[in-house]
């Protein structure tokens, strides 16, 4: 949802997602909390989870979770900055290939040729300086 805020004389655009009701509280999977309870983060192995929609709580800091992305589990080490975010944000479920077709491929080939030419030029200058 795109919202417009007027801050002084400037017009600011911000993206706000729909938040969960405050009376409901954050959604944290109960099974994850049970797995974390009473353990130290550095000592435990990776905790596998399929709960991508679960929010990261402060008790989870220091643990490594294996978040399922639909194919495999991706290791996510939880830090303090991640609290409040969801596990799914740190384990992408789709793989970006690239945009473009023939035109993009031609541009990449030209770029690669330019890099090779620059490397050869640098090599010849180094060799001439040695003599």
Strand order of the largest sheet: 3-4-5
Rg over C-alpha atoms, rounded to the nearest angstrom: 24 Å
Tell me about the largest β-sheet: 3 strands, mixed
> And the CATH topology of the domain at 44-93?
30s Ribosomal Protein S19, Chain A
Which CATH architecture of the domain at 44-93 is right? Answer: 2-Layer Sandwich
CATH class of the domain at 44-93: Alpha Beta
Sheet/helix structural class: alpha+beta
Q: Tell me, briefly, the overall form.
A: elongated
Number of helices: 2
Main features:
single chain, 131 residues, alpha+beta, 30s Ribosomal Protein S19, Chain A, three-stranded mixed sheet, two-stranded antiparallel sheet, 27% helix, disordered N terminus
Protein architecture, described:
This protein has 131 residues and is α+β, with helices and mostly antiparallel strands. It is 27% helix and 19% strand. It has a domain of 50 residues: 30s Ribosomal Protein S19, Chain A (2-Layer Sandwich). It has two helices and five strands. It has a three-stranded mixed sheet with strand order 3-4-5, with no helix packed on it. It has a two-stranded antiparallel ribbon with strand order 1-2.
Task: Summarize, please.
The chain has helices at residues 30-36, 102-130, and strands spanning 2-7, 10-15, 47-49, 64-68, 73-77. With 131 residues, the chain is α+β, with helices and mostly antiparallel strands.
Topology:
Elements: E1 2-7, E2 10-15, H1 30-36, E3 47-49, E4 64-68, E5 73-77, H2 102-130
Parallel strand pairs: 3-4
Antiparallel strand pairs: 1-2, 4-5
């Amino acid at each position: 949802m795109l919202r417009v805020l007027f801050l002084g004389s400037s017009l600011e655009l911000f993206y706000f997602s729909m938040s969960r009701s405050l009376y409901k509280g954050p959604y944290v999977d109960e099974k994850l909390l049970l797995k974390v309870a009473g353990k130290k983060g550095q000592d435990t192995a990776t905790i596998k989870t399929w709960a991508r929609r679960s929010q990261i709580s402060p008790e989870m800091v220091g643990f490594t979770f294996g978040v399922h992305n639909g194919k495999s589990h991706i290791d996510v080490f939880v830090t303090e900055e991640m609290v409040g975010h969801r596990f799914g944000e740190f384990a992408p479920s789709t793989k970006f290939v690239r945009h473009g077709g023939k035109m993009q491929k031609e541009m990449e080939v030209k770029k690669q040729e330019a890099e090779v030419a620059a490397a050869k030029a640098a090599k010849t200058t180094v060799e001439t300086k040695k003599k």
